[in-house]
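hey so i finaly got around to running the thing on PX domain-containing protein from Paragonimus skrjabini miyazakii. pasting the sequence first so u can double check i didnt mess up the copy paste, my clipboard has been acting weird all day
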Amino acid sequence: MDPKAPMTSEVVSTPSTNGCDKPFDVNVTYPVKVGDGMSAYIVYHVVFTGHQPPFDLRTFNVTRRFSDFLGLHAKLLNQYQCTGIIIPSAPDKNVLGRALIFVYSLGTTMVKMSKDTSLENEFIERRRIALERFLYRLLSHPVLRTDSNLREFLEHEGDLPRSVNTQLISGASAKKMFRNFGDVLGKITYKMEDPEEGFVDEYFDLKTEELESWERQLKRLHGALTSLVTSTQDLVSSKFAVSRAISQLANVEEHTGLAQALGRLADTEENVSQRYAMLADAELMYLADCARDTLGIIQACKDALDERWKAFRNWKSAENALRLKRELKVKLELAGRCDQRKSQGIDAELEELSVRVESEKNNFEKVTQVVKVELDRVDFTRFDDLKQAATQFLQITLQTQEKLLENWESYLLQAKTIN
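ok and heres what it spat out for the 3d tokens, dont ask me to read them lol
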């Protein structure tokens, strides 16, 4: 067995949803490569079962490409982000973390791979898990779970229309970077605090500071976990190399008893390397990837706060436009240049601006309420997510240590019989 082969059967990517105590069950399974060469791509089987309303009490089995998941995320962003709803981040296009040697193309996605072919399997498995987590978070959201785009994604048999806005990710990222830079400058102009009107942003100020602190610490944790995974993977390679070396030594040993003992030691070291490989996969999938997913959630929270600020900016811009128009009317009246016709035109504009101010204010208050509910929901669910990941990792770790102990105890009994 290749010590670097990815762990699949013993890794569960999302909290268990089997049984009717949960309203749904969703699984992303059986990745299959379609086509050859530059036109090749991977399709995933998505199995969705509703157990309770609002879901239909039936099972759907569809196949979806990675670009379909990105297209779904883009549709949800366009429809819900402006309302303050926190949209779970889409899985990254590249999820490999090992040292990589060359690049080959898998369909429209450039996948960095090493000469070790097991990395391709690891890439596909990690992406499968990320996609399953993504769907689980969408279906767990009380609003997003009822969206028609999500239901079509889960229930429509056959191919979905190709999404054109998933191809130029780098260009979209660049546009977002410049847009965020402009937003930072705008926030300096429109500070969301006005003590004279009794408007103080204390709750959201504290939340923003909390998210910034949380993000800094998680980035450090993710870096440390990545180093831990690399160290464990290096240990796997070293253990496997030791096993091969001992096996070769056993082949040339003339003493029969010692040769047998060396052969058993080589087998034990190989089993140990396989167990450490499973541990490395658990560290990667439960700890490092969980930290990375949480960073994505933090960014989604910050995006929701940005939408609230944009609503505030629109409100204050409308107020400023109304104030300037009123000042203009007063100046014209004082100068005696405001006849009846012009006055009626200005009054109509003032009425329109007043309606706009009220509309923007109501929208800001609505977005504020939604964002607050969403942030509280994230606070509630993130503890469960971290607990679930830690519990699953500890279970794998305990199983690994028990198997390691069994392997060495078994070898010790055999070693004592050497004459």
